[in-house]
Every structure is written in structure tokens, then in C-alpha cells.
Amino acid sequence: MNIVNILEEIEKVDGEIYERISPRRAAMKEFYGFGSKVALAAVPLALGSMFKKAYGQTSSTVLDVLNFALTLEYLEFYFYQTGAAASGLVPSGVHASAINTILTHEMEHVALLKGAITASGGTPVSFTADQFDYTAKGNFPTVFTSFPTFLAVAQGFEDTGVRAYKGQAGNLISAPGVLQTALQIHSVEARHASHIRQARRTTEGGGLTALKPWVTGANDSGVPQLDMTYAGEDNTVQAGIDITSFGVTAAAASACFDEPLTKEAVLAIASLFIK
Amino acid sequence: MKNFQHEDQELLHKESGILTAKLQRRSFLQYAGAGAAGIALIAAGCKKDNETSGAHTGVDLGTGDVGILNYAYALEQLEAAFYTAVVQSPYSGISAYELSLLTDIRDHEIAHREFFKKALGSSAIIGLTVDFTSINFSVRDNVLATAKAFEDLGVSAYNGAGNLIKSADYLLLAGKIVSVEARHAALIRDLISNGSFADSTVIDLNGLDKARAPKDVLAIAQTYVKTTINGSNLPTATA
After folding, report:
1. Quick check: ipTM above 0.95?
2. pTM of the full predicted structure?
3. CB-based contact, A196 to chain B, within 8 Å
4. Domain that holds residue A88
5. Tens digit of pLDDT for each residue in B47-106?
6. Domain count for chain B
């Protein structure tokens, strides 16, 4: 594989590689001309510095996304950690083991993101449990004493998390490895959300028997305080195509596509839980 | 060389037709870049490493983003056909609750399938002929085990295809769908064994879901599809 092939391979995942390397098309021609004139051994060096220049500019965007994700993972991690430790909150058996499974994942996500940020030369954000207020300034006073309330807040966090990662995917197109990892976290959050919604259907979880594992309409949580988390989820038009035109109900058309949230919208939600 | 340029022109033509008539800047750069690389190829007088032999047969998913959308379309066809069969002849002893959830999932998969078909327009592959002879639709365990396999496969497919997509718009659409597939997967797993929604058979020690490359997904999916699916022209990740 020669340099041209390498560029082509990169181009498959980063359509703007040529633009990154040089803002001018002409400069690429210069590069190829240059490559044919210099000794072969010198080319990898030139290529290395070229890539460094090309990607150095985007790394701050990627680091911002990673730190944003880490903030949310801390929010979730300390939430489940506090809940799991609260005496008499989570019923033993399948509920306790499920909450523990989720807690473990959030802890792993925190560790993974911290490591990724450090390895990329960034500084990971850092939070301690007491920096968070899970009552959301008094909106959920029984969050760690009532299992139904705990699950309602959990549903809000998981569904917000899904929307948050989704909203950042486009910012990671230039970093395919990071993008894939983010997607692999994103679907885990969706699995969590699905289970939490199932748990809320049980008697001890609140008995919301009409609740589905997927998001239907603008706020199906039964909790008005979570309106911001579900704003726009009632969308039934994708890429200009009306999904109800395929003979499915508006509820199904809304549920079969999850919607993204902007970083600003997510931070507005998260800030309710940060002291 | 000729083929290479021809392919790009064809792709360019196809891409401009779907979802948006406007050719995006990213896409333009991609083609401009490919042209530059083409010129360099002649200059270097070398052989393209990633050239396909042309020996493949079956339904060609295509190249680039169109190929990935067709890949998703193929998987959604499979899932929609499966749940349609499940709801048509429910397994014995099915509860009203389970039937309502499986009906929801059927509707979601049909919507996904029809969405891709419409979005792809004339670039869409044909309707695939499925082969469900290995599935016993009257037995709950068998149906749910198959559903679990399909949903986990779908999640890993979208997770593994994200970084092959060039357009941010298509990436977002894939993202909107994959989390719904993950919700399905978790539910089906909980129906089989409550609490297994994200167990260690599918989530690794970094808390990550699986991501599979198209060729690995297609090898598994092909078991349930009579029509041969040819994904050999799909983009591949850089090593």
C-alpha cells in the first residue's frame, strides 16, 4: 500500500482529509509533485507532520465531546452509586442486580472516557458525588427513598444520555475510532433506558403498566418535570419523509426513531442536577 | 482506472438523488479528492489495493453512503419480515402484553424498511427473499431467541457502520434508528430472562456494546435470506 492508497483509505472515513491537509486543492498537487521528487525515506516524515497539522485543529472538538460525555457519565454513575447504597431503596432480586449492572457500565464509561481524554492530551473533567443534587433543586425530594421516584429520575437520565450521544455523533465524523466508541456507549444507554422503563411497569417500580421500552410522543414518562428530556420526541417526519405515510400509527412513527438533543439542551437538563 | 472514475460518477449521480438534491460540500470534496488521488495513481503507476475482483454475484448493495443505506435497508427488510411472521402466527401461549410489544416492534421495523426504501429511491436494492425455515414460529423460546439474535445483530451492525458513513445527516439517521433497535434488544432479552438486557454476553468490560463490520453482519444475516447479498463494494474501515 503506498501513500495514495493510505490517503484513499482515510478518505473513506474522513471525506475532508484532502481539505484538512491543505485548504487548497492546488496544494495537494504540490504534495504529489513533491513526493515524486524527494527520496522515498523522507515521505513518511512529511506525511506524519501533514497529518498532525490536519488533525491537530479538530482534536479540541473531539475532546470537548469526550468531556461533555464524561460529565453525563459522572452524573449517572454517582446517581446509581448513591441509589444502590441507599438502605431499603432498591428491592433485592432482579431490581438490585439490574441497577448494579447499570452502575457497573456507568463506572466503566467514566473510566474509558477519562482514559481516552488523557491519552489524547486533554484534561478530563472531574466530579465528586457531593457536587450533584439528585433532587434537582427539590423537584424529586424522594429520589433516594422512593424506588418509583428513583426509577423516574433514572429514566430521565438514560433517555437524556441516549439523546446526548446521538446529538454529538456528527462532531465525531473526523475521528472514526472515537465515533465508534461513542456509538457503542450510546446503544448501551438505550438498553438501560429500555430496562428502566420495564422496571417502572412493575408494582414496586411504580406500576406504570402503559409505559413502553421505547419513547412515544413528547413526554411518556408521566413526570412533568422531565418535559425537557422529551421535547421533540414526538417527531414523525424523518429526512422530509412522513413516517405515518407507511401505514403506521403516529405513536409508532414517533417511537421508531429516537431524536437527538443539542449539547446546550442536555447541559440545561444536567445543570438542574449540578449544585 | 476507467472503472474507478466511472464508478464515482455513478455514485455521484445516485447520491444527488436521495434525501437531498443538494450535493453537500463534504461529498464534493470527497469526489474532488478521489479525482486527485486518481491522477496520482496514474503518476505512481501502481495498482489499487482495494480494488474488487468483480467475481461476486447477488444483489450488490453498492458503494459509499448509498451502499451503507442499502445495507441498513437489507437488515430492516429481514427484521420486518421476521416480526410480520411472528405477529401473523403468534407462538402458543403468547400474552396480550407480549403480542402488543411484538406488534410495536413489527411496526417500527416496517417503518424503518419503508423509510430506507423511499429515501434510496431508484438506488434501492430489490426486496429480498427471506428463509425462515430454521425458525419454529409456534415456540416462544425459538421466536424470542431469534428476535434476540436479530436485534443484537442490528445494534452491532449500526454501531459498526457509523464510521463508514460520510454524510453527517445519514449518520444521525442511523443513530436515530440504532437506539430504537437497542431498546428492542433489551426488551426481548428481558422477556427471555428479566435482567439480561445488557449482560456480559453483549457488553464488554469497558461497558461497550458490540460493533460488527458489514461483512461479519452479512455472513450471519445471509443464513436467513435466500437472495445472495453482495456487500463487497461497501466501504471498509481503515486498519
Report:
1. no
2. 0.80
3. no
4. 59-271
5. 333 334 444 689 999 999 999 999 999 999 999 999 999 999 999 999 999 999 999 999
6. 2
